[in-house]
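Hey L., structure's done. Input below.
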Amino acid sequence: MPVLADYSPLSKLDAHSENGNLQDAINNNSLRGTHFGEEEMLKIFRGICYAVRALHNYKLPSVYRTEFTNGNTLPNGPIINNNILSQVASTQPQAEENIVPFAHRDIKPGNILMSDDMQTPVLMDFGSLIRARIKVDNRSNALVQQELAAEKSTMSYRAPELFDVKTNIELDEKSLGCTLYAMAYGKSPFENSINEQGGSIALAVLSNQFKFPDTKDDIYSQDFRNLVGFLLAVDPKDRPNIHQVIERVDSLIEQLSSRNLGTNI
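Output:
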């Protein structure tokens, strides 16, 4: 089940979970020299993806509409005779099939609360939430969206198209990739890049300037690294949608579970 919550006051956050947020867990790993197991990490990440899927697939609720019928068939009734009733107010609920996707636009470990069992992530802080599909038809509108992103979205987890605005829902997938990288390696890929090579985070994001640890030093599989790279593609057209992300994560978890089961036999 996707779990979403908006816990703006810190007192509410602290009362909800003694474990704090995912960033706290990452910091604790760094301090203790520990790390998430790959399967454990992917299961937590999948929970985050479920919450994002709920946002990207939001359906308008059913509404009650008043329809004036003049000789037409009602949704669940016969033809109305004009001589008997010229206007009929129908209060039948109308199913709304249109999906109205929303983008969180600030997915990062600090905005993911961890439940007491350390297994269930709760996506929170929706101050940056916006409809994913926004018409940007001139430079003025683009600058407004760009300024909004600068105010509401954390730079080191921000999709490159938010630096030169082209609004779409795949920008959350980029942030998911940064979050998964941070869970594994302690920081956003672009923070790591700046720490090692200098320069600006914006330039690192726009040029996709990041790297993984050397293979011989990396405790995580090549399949895991491929998943992160898939999410961090610069061009949103090359990035997976949330359904493809979940499908790939499910497949990787299944592989790891089978491998671990075989090891324990």
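Residues 242-264 form the longest helix (23 residues). Confidence is low (pLDDT under 50) at residues 6-15, 64-96.

-- N.
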